[in-house]
Design goal:
Layout lengths: L25 H11 L7 E5 L5 H8 L4 E6 L2 H14 L5 E5 L2 H10 L4 E6 L7 H11 L3 E12 L11 E9 L2 E8 L1
Parallel strand pairs: 1-2, 1-4, 2-3, 4-5
Antiparallel strand pairs: 5-7, 6-7
């Protein structure tokens, strides 16, 4: 794993080893940040199911003002802290240990809003659509927020949930990125 762009470009991050984490492939990450490039500088970004932190660290490296990493596995949280250290990107980084539902509830209570919500739930467990429902209940987003779900390319996601509408979907081998906006 490595940072592919920005101020921490080429920094090596520690891989998850035997942890049940599937880091985002460099090709997918590069495409994601090419699409998001106009809105990354100075944005607020939340990385749900953060794992080793590769996507959120990439956002910080490319100029995000704040990245909140949400991860419930304590071993992954330790790895995430280590990777933030390796990248040298402490400013703007915050880790919230806990599951996504509880974390979004806390963020709503804190009245936090994000410009970009990125979620990479475990594949083939039906969690991507559940994330959209959870986000609908916990509005940590604003009218201009971009929501990105990384899923298995075979997953079928709704085009419109009543709260969010799909505006773009890209496939990269076995992985898909689905981009939503509030309606």
């Amino acid at each position: 794993m490595r940072v592919i762009g920005g101020v921490a470009k080429k920094r090596r991050l520690k891989s998850p080893g035997d942890l049940p984490i599937r880091p985002t492939a460099d090709r997918v990450k590069e495409s994601l940040f090419n699409i998001l490039a106009p809105i990354i500088p100075a944005c607020t970004f939340v990385d749900l199911f953060a794992g080793a932190g590769g996507v959120g660290i990439e956002a910080l490296s490319r100029g995000a003002a704040k990245v909140l990493f949400v991860e419930k596995d304590q071993r992954a949280v330790r790895l995430l802290k280590h990777n933030i250290d390796l990248a040298g990107l402490h400013t703007g980084a915050e880790i919230m240990a806990g599951d996504v539902e509880q974390s979004l509830r806390r963020l709503t209570q804190r009245n936090e809003k994000f410009d970009i919500v990125f979620a990479d739930p475990p594949y083939r467990q039906g969690l991507a659509a559940a994330v959209l429902n959870t986000l609908a209940r916990h509005p940590v987003w604003q009218p201009h927020t971009t929501i990105v779900l990384e899923t298995d390319a075979k997953d079928v996601l709704p085009e419109n949930t009543g709260t969010f509408a799909l505006w773009r979907r890209e496939k990269y081998g076995d992985t898909a990125l689905s981009f939503y906006r509030p309606v």
